[in-house]
Design a protein that fits this description.
The structure is a single chain. Helix content is 19%, strand content 29%. It is an alpha+beta fold. It folds into 3 domains: 3-55, Structural Genomics Hypothetical 15.5 Kd Protein In mrcA-pckA Intergenic Region, Chain A (Roll); 63-126 and 217-240, Pseudouridine synthase I, catalytic domain, N-terminal subdomain (Alpha-Beta Plaits); 130-210, Alpha-Beta Plaits (2-Layer Sandwich). Strands 7, 8, 9, 10, 13, 14, 15, 16 and 17 form a 9-stranded mixed β-sheet that branches. The chain has a 4-stranded antiparallel β-sheet with strand order 3-2-5-6, with no helix packed on it. The longest helix is centred in the first third of the chain and has 9 residues, at 17-25. The two termini are 35 Å apart.
Length: 245
């Protein structure tokens, strides 16, 4: 089966399709020993593809759902030798990468794969993949603040679309609240920044769902492989072909 070169590179997990296109244009991709700069060329598993000096292997696709604990980095490696999400998954010698990230002190659901095409779909803002978080904050929100959040607070001059918002619990004695919020944003620290923009601090944060996936049956640090049906459903987020929460 043949497919476009940039898609093949992205599917290898080496980089995104957009980055693959940049590398092709820059003359850093070789197919069967020849430099290729044309975007429309098609390749198959029989072709030898080198990207910036690295051989692209035709490996099986791997998909994992991890319940990330605290004090774990959402990366493949860390310069300070802290534990990463990749360290928690036993997948022999295959390279996998987290889709997006969760902060060091944030827990919850994170996906890891070597499928660059799926990573592109889930990470692209236009596909609006919903993610639900439960946050403990150091205040009791006013009605005006709740209204502001529900109607979209601007972070760095860009409005955050809130798909769902609920105050789950209020502790009047300690002046803290537990909030549930669903957004499709992927910007760093976005949930923390929503409350920070109102002068409040997130004390604890957990991502409970990613699209239609949740943490059922898993404890912190545990993971499972995604089913074929789940992977196909994740692919359906492309061009908003799946019903959102």
């Amino acid at each position: 089966m043949e497919e476009r070169l940039q898609k093949k590179i992205a599917a290898s997990g080496l980089c995104s399709r957009r980055k693959a296109e940049e590398l092709i244009t820059a003359g850093k991709v070789l197919v069967n020993g020849k430099i290729v700069t044309e975007m429309g060329i098609k390749v198959s598993n029989k072709d030898e593809i080198m990207v910036d000096g690295k051989l692209i292997n035709n490996t099986d696709k791997l998909y994992y759902l991890l319940y990330k604990p605290e004090k774990v980095i959402s990366s493949t490696k860390d310069e300070h030798n802290r534990k990463t999400v990749v360290d928690l998954i036993d997948c022999t010698n295959e390279k996998i990468y987290p889709i997006g990230r969760l902060d060091y002190d944030t827990t919850g659901i994170i996906l890891l794969t070597n499928d660059g095409a799926l990573t592109d779909i889930l990470a692209h803002p236009k596909n609006m993949v919903p993610k639900t978080y439960v946050a403990k904050i150091n205040t009791i929100l006013t009605k005006d603040e709740i209204y502001q959040i529900k109607n979209g607070i601007k972070i760095d001059n860009r409005k955050v679309e809130v798909l769902y918002f609920k105050v789950r619990k209020v502790n009047k004695e300690n002046r803290v609240s537990t909030i549930e919020i669903t957004i499709s944003e992927g910007r760093n620290h976005i949930v923390k920044n929503i409350f920070l923009s109102l002068g409040h601090k997130v004390l604890k944060l957990k991502r409970t769902t990613y699209g239609f996936l949740d943490l059922s049956g898993l404890k912190k640090g545990e993971y499972r492989s995604l089913t074929i049906k789940e992977v196909k459903t994740l692919y359906a987020y492309k061009n908003n072909k799946i019903k959102k929460v």
